[in-house]
Design brief:
The chain has six helices and seven strands; from the N terminus they run αααβαββββββαα. It is α+β, with helices and mostly antiparallel strands.
Length: about 220
């Protein structure tokens, strides 16, 4: 089975080149180096607004339970290309066909968090092969879901979906969600993570034009 790696949290690391030479004061100067407060960075978002407004009502409720809040924020500032670090469904659809550097991630924090540990991070990669569901081969704590061609949660730490999306030479899209254990609420469940990931994945499948083939349900049952 293909192993996925934990995401490297990069709270606006891409802006380091723009702010080179600041040394130790970089951490407190990121806002100034990325255009100041005029570009709306650090804006407080509702669950319905995050990840380019891709969360439906059940997913928004699940995210609020995961974060124990109804206020969130995404990565501030811009990347080297001058594009916002805030997630864009259009960029994610384009980037899934490109290399890792072009793939757009939805990285969420609670509105009051100042750490480098995201509440959740959602990413998408193109794949030519997908795992075959086999409950007997899954480690303890994993739960398989009848979503796409393969979907599972690993306790309340991560969720994965492979869905069919034959576009521009790819066969599948691998959707991954990771959560930071030190940020999530004790009430978080693996089901919450799958509900959130499925909702964002459904929106991406529509953007890619493969919703009818993706087999992503409107509602996730436990």
């Amino acid at each position: 089975m293909r192993q996925t790696s934990e995401p490297s949290t990069r709270r606006a690391i891409s802006r380091a080149a723009v702010c080179s030479g600041l040394g130790a004061v970089l951490a407190v100067s990121l806002s100034a180096c990325s255009g100041g407060s005029g570009d709306g960075e650090d804006a407080t978002l509702t669950a319905a607004q995050v990840c380019d407004a891709t969360l439906d009502s059940p997913a928004a409720t699940s995210l609020e339970r995961v974060g124990a809040t109804d206020k969130f924020k995404e990565l501030p500032g811009t990347n080297e290309a001058g594009e916002p670090n805030r997630f864009s469904l259009k960029r994610a659809a384009t980037g899934v066909h490109e290399g890792p550097a072009e793939q757009d991630k939805c990285t969420l924090f609670t509105s009051t968090d100042e750490s480098d540990h995201p509440l959740i991070e959602v990413s998408f990669t193109a794949e030519q092969h997908a795992p075959t569901p086999d409950a007997s081969a899954e480690p303890a704590g994993s739960v398989l879901y009848p979503i796409g061609v393969y979907a599972k949660t690993n306790a309340k730490n991560s969720a994965t979906i492979y869905f069919r999306c034959p576009t521009r030479g790819i066969t599948y899209v691998n959707a991954s969600l990771y959560s930071a254990p030190d940020q999530t609420s004790p009430k978080t469940t693996g089901h919450d993570l799958m509900v959130v990931l499925n909702s964002v994945s459904r929106a991406l499948a529509r953007q890619l034009g493969c919703a009818s083939q993706a087999d992503l349900p409107a509602r996730v049952t436990p």
